[in-house]
Amino acid sequence: MSSNDHVNTHGTAGEPDPSSHHAPGSFPHILLFFIIGLALSLVVGWGIFPKLLYSQKSQPFGFSHKVHLEQVDQGCQSCHFFREDGTFSGSPRLAQCLECHEEMQGQSEDEAIFVKEYASKGREVPWLVYARQPDCVFFSHTAHVLGAKMDCVTCHGHIGTSDSLKPYEENRITGYSRDIWGPSLTGLKHNSWDRMKMDDCAECHAKYDVLHDSSVQTKRDACFVCHK
Amino acid sequence: MKLSRRCFLSFVLGGAAGTALTPLPWKLTDDLSIWSQNWPWTPVPPDGATNFVNSTCELCPAHCGITVRTVADRAVKIEGQEENANKTGGGACLLGLSGLQLLYGPTRVQGPLKRIEENGTIRFQPISWQQAIDEVVAKMAELRSQGKPQSVACLSGRDVGTVPQLFKRLLKAYGSANFVSMPSVEDAYASALRLTQGIDGFVGLDVENTDFILSFGSALLDGYGSPQRMMQAVGRLKKQRGTLVQAESRLSNTAAKADIWLAIKPGSEAALALGMAQVIISRGRYNSDFVNAHTEGFDSFAAMVKEKYAPSAVAEVTGIAPEVIAQTALAFAGAKNPLAICGRGKGQTPVSLKEVLAIQALNALVGSINRKGGAQTMPTYDYLNWPAVELDVTAQTGIAKGRLDGAGSDKYPHVGSLAHRLIEAIDASAGELQMLLVAECNPCYSLPDSDKVKAAFEKIPFIVSFSSFMDETARQADLILPNHVYLERYEDVPVMAGTVQPTIGLCQPVVSPLLNTQHLGDSIIKIALGLQGNIAKAFPWKNYESCLMETLGDQWPLMSDQGYWASEAAASSSERGFSTASGKLILMNGTLGAIFMAEAPVTASGGDYPLQLIPYDSIRLTSGYVGTPPFMIKTVEDTVLKGQEGFVALNPETGKSLGLASGDMATLITPVGQASVRVHHDDGVMPGVLSMPRGLGHSAYDSFLAAKGVNINQLIGTMEDPASGLDAAWGIRAKLVKA
Description:
The complex is a heterodimer of chains A (about 230) and B (about 750). Helix content of chain A is about 40%, strand content about 5%. Chain A is flat. Chain A has a domain at about 55-180. Chain A has 8 helices and 2 strands, in the order ααβαααααβα. A two-stranded antiparallel sheet of chain A has the order 1-2. Chain B is of the alpha/beta class and about 750 residues long. Chain B folds into 5 domains: about 5-35; about 50-105, Single Sheet (N-terminal domain of TfIIb), CATH 2.20.25; about 115-130 and about 145-185 and about 380-565, Rossmann fold, CATH 3.40.50; about 205-375, Dimethylsulfoxide Reductase, domain 2 (3-Layer(aba) Sandwich), CATH 3.40.228; about 610-739, Barwin-like endoglucanases (Beta Barrel). The mean pLDDT of chain B is about 90. Chains A and B meet through helix 2 of A and helix 1 and helix 2 of B.
């Protein structure tokens, strides 16, 4: 067979065959591949990607906010207090915990871990903080809690009455908690505390734009209010 | 099923459309942007409780009050203490603000070190504190048992306050009179006060209330005394339309801001002052009330200046026209509260006794001694009430041998310490000094003729450095017992530097010691206890902190709270009298006459060296014990330091005659040394003069500081004041050769 024959043969085969509806290159055939691609990407995007994006970590030991809140007089601020200069103390340091837990107070296994591994060795507890914002964000608890009189629940939800700590889901790319973006990858939220992205902050700042007018141009809050 | 090209494209399109319907692209974009804004290697300061500690800056003799902000156990910001404004200006200078770089910088000594020489190479080996103290004790005990306690000396950055005094006490009980402090203008002022007023003390400058400042080369805007206080005083003076006269050969920042700049020939300050005194006296413009009531020797002083310091003669020496001298002198005498200030540059180098006496005489002639806006006589701080030291026979014999530097002897009766003489003595007879203890100073860098100092140090059999930094002197040491830096320790620091309100600053630990260092006071006490006998008995304190608390007594709570103690402002009245035999201020007597008649120290005459090299002080550089921190080096102009190259500034006229254009490389040669420099043409430098800053050219420290520019102390030699013996070096003959 000469090379010319080969070309001829190939050219004939390339003609559409009216007898077959699912021949490669026919419209339904192409559509099928489109649907396969679409379906697969939806599975990856909604099913596999979220599982890959977050790793689950557990806290050093279990902790019940509920039990503690029942024992103290001043609510959340008994442990998460404002220092004299107005700065916020954040997660309690070991010294604070030791004020009560120098020795075992109850029989729980979690407390035993705390006393044995941390209290007696003088080690700070490496808490994984759900609400920690990236370092490019400046946030002042004083301005929000003492200034704007917001309550803790608005941003932190009902963690104060929870009996256990949920697993900490760490974003593998950013290293921050899933709680910042929120449980739903769609970005939709049901409660004010579900998400703490910039839009969620801006929502409130825009709502009270009479107070928040640090930008001369826009008469709203300027970027540097949060991004120093 | 066969996959055609179209099918594949369709699959990809479907995938893309599907992906756009999932959160994946939007979430990934967001996460990547957060990730890229928060690189894991970007340093982020840890969070913690904020605290403010009131303390005192120890980086220069001004000892300003500072407030240090700490977060957890980290010092994050140093600021000037506003409450302390009336004493130190209420701000912090560039050096004070950069102090954290000294605390956290890489040049600190990590722990006690011992010098080891192996196969010709030298290295420092870490040892324990116990071993370090034991080695010092063993060496000192050995020298003492040989009957040579006087062969141990101490070179200290300061001589007031508990730590220097503990050192002095250790040497005294041990049997050595050789406690030598580093030179400063205070030495010259102190001698002048003893000679004219019979008082042991220092001079306070009431710059806040004067309306006329006559400054003899003092860098009022470049770090003289307390930098902020002087700057604010000059600002106030100008605002209230007072007058600032700057007599200086170079157009410094102070000269540029002055109302009158007297561009005098270098080294002729004393002649200018006496020439002005002559004008004031001959025109009868002196304050006759003060002169008649409170001075003695006026007539002979008047005769002396008339004979030797007529304006025409002075004009020749200083290069200032006689009528300008006369006008300036009369303006000075006509001011309500005039003040003449002495001390070149930052006042961290001595001037000749003749110069300080001449300038103080000007103040006396216009009645500006112990008067509002004048020069105040401040008595020495005397809060150390320690029991007397009991001397055993060895100690008595050792002390009777006198001092190696000759200070206080018949030859140099007016001064307490002569550091350059100690170096001379080591150089001349090596065996005389067996052991040198160096504390809070860097003589191998900051004393003139630093190569000679280094060579002399080579001859000392045993050197112990207490430096916190691996500086030029620590590198020469056999043992390094690093002190805490000032932000880690307690220490009292009596303020002099021209203050008019007796103030004792308290240096307080802002953070816990970061490294394996030990307080110098504790090291001294441990050495003393190790030496046992009478020496140990002289140190009844458990540790330095208890010694300090006991010494400060009732003042301790107040001082630890506000960081200083200040007495009520000194009474500004000449009624307080003087402690001379007549109760009057001596303008002239036999001793002073001899000093006034002597020639001021000058650089050797021309010959091979047609130019004069004059150092100057810049507020952007520090030239004492600590090295210039990186923040400050960054502020140095590129006409002074560019990359590693240092510049010498000269008048374009001089440059032209030497065939050197701006930017050319040249070799700067003096009788003492030579260096490679770049030339910078500057109209503000007098023709025939070369100008270079102090504070560059370190061979020690880190890459931020080492090998940048030239250490001018390698190029200038000592210039001994014949009257006092102080090293009043203000320059040296030099030549500049195109490289």
